[in-house]
Amino acid sequence: MASSDPDPLLRLRQSIAASEPPIATVSSDPSSEATDNLATATHLQFNNPPTSYSLDTPTRFVSSDKPVDLRSIWFAWQKKDVAIPDYIASAQSLNEELAVKDGASKVQNLVFVERLDLITWLEGASEESEYIKGLEPDASATHSAQVASGAAGGVSTVPSGAAGTRVGRTTDPRLQKIYNGERRMGDRNSVLRGIKPT
């Protein structure tokens, strides 16, 4: 079953938080063969609910002003505990395997800071990431927000009272008595140097 959910990155984060990581498969069919080799895998299969994403799907994670594909995100997650030189070597060898297979797919090598930020976000240790774009609001949510703010459609705003009926603000006499008993505060200069007579 292909996914109708437009955000595989959020789905990946949720599955990691639920301790149900996705499985790399050779097709979008839920009963397809699982594989550990990202060079032969074509889809990432999630369990609850059963959904499948192509590994070439672009995500909201942006590196060098380009969206990073799901294959690169999953590869970075799998290699989260590996040192940087080993990560780079693994990415190069996977890219060589992918070039032999089809030549179109490629794992993007994430810079240390980007990789660290991604892993921190996927683990749930941070709620925001400077490399992840915000979710696109759907049309119905945007319209509802415009109606609620009065910018479009809906009921027009009505003033609470007739114009000019209430000139000043009245204060409760008991509250005014309390205010009169409070100490008046001035700014720092007035407190330190006093008020000059005029």
User: Can you give the mean pLDDT?
Assistant: 78
Residue runs with pLDDT of under 50 for 5 or more positions? none
Number of separate strands: 5
Distance between the first and last residues' Cα: 84 Å
Number of helices: 7
Strand order of the largest sheet: 1-2-3
Query: Order of helices and strands, N to C?
Result: HEEEEEHHHHHH
Structural class: alpha+beta
Percent of residues in beta strands? 5-15%
Radius of gyration: 29 Å
- Summarize the amount of helix as a percent range: 25-40%
The shape, in one word, is elongated
* Biggest sheet statistics: 3 strands, antiparallel
Features:
elongated
What does this structure look like?
- With 198 residues, this protein is of the alpha+beta class.
- It is built from seven helices and five strands.
- The strands form two sheets. The protein has a three-stranded antiparallel β-sheet with strand order 1-2-3, with helices on one face. It has a two-stranded antiparallel sheet with strand order 4-5.
- Strand 4 and strand 5 (66-69) form a beta hairpin.
- The longest helix is centred in the middle third of the chain and has 18 residues, at 84-101.
- The radius of gyration is 29 Å and the shape is elongated.
- The model has no long low-confidence stretch (mean pLDDT 78).
